[in-house]
Amino acid sequence: MVKLLIGNRPGLEACDIEERLALSPSYTCEVLAALRRERPGERIQLLIGGDSLLALHTWGHAEELVGEYEILTYPRRGETPDAAALALHWPPRTVRKLLAGLLPGEFFEISSTNIRNGVAKQDKMRHINSEATERVEEYIRQHHLYEKRILNGK
Questions:
Q1: Is residue 79 a contact partner of residue 50, using CB atoms and an 8 Å limit?
Q2: What's the pLDDT at 106?
Q3: Which end of the chain is less packed: N or C, by CB atoms within 10 Å?
Q4: φ/ψ of residue 33, rounded to 5
């Protein structure tokens, strides 16, 4: 799906490292460490949504992740992290680092959770209209991803 979404856009590349590692459970910190070993000298950044940043303290190896990698955060409407919210779980230096990674720009009402829930309810991806998202939506439907199975008539 990532390949379908990025298409031939310059500067973007789909990476299958998580699939190749086949970790269970798969912790982001371990995946990024493996990526760093595969691509020494390259800049490794993690892009997450504002909702994920607010919950980052609950992730496995969260302190190591924040200490070792640059975290970029795409704010979502109603879920833009601020210093007070982050200070509940992080020391001041870490709060400053995390806030420095907040990306400016327009809000797009999209998240992987919204996509999965929309597909489960058989909604179209109306919130984004592009050829790339249409290809992703078609792939999801063809492969019956994220569909809720109805068992015993419930």
A1: yes
A2: 64
A3: C
A4: -65, -40
Instruction: Say if residues 43 and 74 touch (Cβ distance below 8 Å).
Output: no
Confidence of residue 115 (pLDDT cuts 50, 70, 90): low
The whole model's pTM is what? 0.72
CA distance 143 to 140: 5
Q: Burial code of 35-57, b = ≥16 C-beta within 10 A, e = fewer?
A: beeeeeeeeeebebbbbbbbebe
Question: Counting Cβ atoms within 10 Å, is residue 112 exposed (0-12), middle (13-18) or buried (19+)?
Answer: exposed
Task: Please tell me the distance from the alpha carbon of residue 112 to that of residue 135, in angstroms, as a whole number.
Answer: 15
